[in-house]
Design goal:
Blueprint: E1 4-10, H1 16-28, E2 32-38, H2 46-54, H3 67-72, E3 79-82, E4 100-103, H4 116-145
Parallel strand pairs: 1-2, 1-3, 3-4
Helix pairs in contact: 1-4, 2-4
Length: 146
């Protein structure tokens, strides 16, 4: 059986979509193939790299990519999941094709304020929210296949 392809997409592909891709690969990599992209790719958020390393997942090698490049390449997905926060939802990109579209709004780590430690603490919370969402979604998908 071939893996279902999932694309996580947000504005810069620097934090939320990268974490979601990494969690799906880590938790359900046997069932799903995951990728991530952004509307306007930025630079990988170092706080996100750090908090993912804390849980044993290395995303430091990841390079943010443009959703447009995936469209031009003719890539097809079973699911396209936007992970922008609610306040940025109107900017969240739409990916063409027949994929099932889902929206999971998460706060944006790039706009966090405070000290380095405060930003890390909030980024950990976002990381954990994404993990729980991925775990629950994986379970739903696996139980619906049975």
């Amino acid at each position: 059986m071939s893996k279902q392809k999932v694309l996580f997409i947000c504005i810069h592909n620097s934090a939320r979509s990268q974490m979601a891709e990494a969690w799906l690969k880590h938790l359900c990599g046997e069932q799903f193939e995951a990728e991530s992209a952004g509307l306007s790719p930025g630079t990988l958020n170092p706080l996100v790299v750090k908090v993912m390393q804390e849980v044993g997942i290395d995303i430091s090698y990841k390079v943010p990519q443009a959703a447009d490049d995936l469209v031009k390449a003719g890539k097809k997905y079973t699911y396209v999941v936007t992970v922008c926060d609610e306040s940025s939802a109107e900017q969240c990109p739409i990916f063409p094709g027949d994929a099932k579209r889902l929206h999971w709004g998460f706060p944006d780590p790039s706009v966090l304020a405070g000290t380095e430690e405060e930003k890390l603490a909030e980024t950990r919370k976002i990381r954990d929210l994404i993990k729980v969402k991925i775990e629950n979604w994986c379970q739903e998908q696996l139980s619906s296949e049975v």
